[in-house]
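Posted in: Protein Modeling Q&A

I'm a second-year student putting together a small comparison for a lab meeting, and my supervisor asked me to include a predicted structure for Aminotransferase class V-fold PLP-dependent enzyme. I've never done this before, so apologies if this is the wrong subforum. The sequence is pasted below exactly as I got it from our records. If anyone can share the structure token output, I'd also love a short note on what stands out.
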Amino acid sequence: MIYLDNAATSFYRPKTVAEAVAEAINTMGNCSRGTYETALTSARTVYETRDLLSGLFHGDGPEQVTFTANSTESLNIAIKGVLDPGDRVVTTALEHNSVLRPLYEMERQGVDLVVVGCTGEMDRGGRSEKERHKGALDYDALKAAITPGTKAVVCTHASNLTGNLVDIRRIGGWCREAGALFLVDASQTAGVFSIDMERDNIDILCFTGHKGLMGPQGTGGICVRKGIRVRPLLSGGSGIMTYSKTHPASMPTALEAGTLNAHGLAGLRAALLYIREQGDGTIRDRELALMRRFHDQVSAIPGVCIYGDFEQQERAAIVALNLGDEDSGEVSDYLAQEHGIYTRSGGHCAPLMHEALGTREQGAVRFSFSHFNTAEEVDLAAAALRAY
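Accepted answer (user: helix_wrangler)
Welcome! Here is the predicted structure, written out as tokens:
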């Protein structure tokens, strides 16, 4: 098996992750629900995981990190927790449905939604296929859209389809100038690329634990800047303030109701320690080297169409492509059945990005790399694609 679907979920993880989950299942009780040893062990593990994440993202402290099941839950909490009818919100065509569908829901409730597209879609000189296939965000249009009175800007840090990295530092500066909240979806970048909430002017950062952070599925979270209030999506048991009729308003409990996935968070903690041990940029550089190696080989295949801006020095380790008019699902199935190479085809939950690229009907075959992949695996995948 050659697993090249890491943008969907990390399959290869540090061995310490599984070990930590197994140990947690056998030793940990319910966090914040008791003062006996197994409950306290759980509470310490959860706190340490918050602290590691706050440090990784340069947040405002562990109390500003709340846990969820995944990015989808995080984004629903963040988007629905800051927007009200009549508010204006700006987003982009690069977004995953985890951003788009909550925003469409809020639009139906009276929120003014503005979606900024990509360059090359409708340029003045006519439609440029080369520019269109880059799927590059139109920064000029985005800057113009972030007007005073805009409540929030919601955008991804990297496209899950093209791998294009978004300049969140520049966008964060525009948000500060306009007085808009800046919400970032770090699903494709957390754990791989540097994210500094203070430097990048990020107010709310949403992430999942099972992709670049290499933790278990069912883990994710939100980092909230101090002074920003997010209405909770859920209310219920919290372990504190039992006799209050309302859910606690203090962070992190404000956005957490019910029992946390402490066993999964123990695995996430182990993954975070592994990432810290690797050092800044090591994982990113390894992934990008593998991605470039693959891109250089497949770009010479007759009839291949590769999507994304590969002039970017830094980008997510993703190569999305099509072979002529071949159905992306057929190509992906061939790779899996004939060569044991696992990729993802279709729409990738990114409908506006596919519309921008002109691949709504065909979809695309996405290859996404982990630093645990090898150069030999990359070469075999390129050879298999050539043999189709």
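A couple of things worth pointing out for your meeting: The chain has twelve helices and twelve strands. The radius of gyration is 21 Å.
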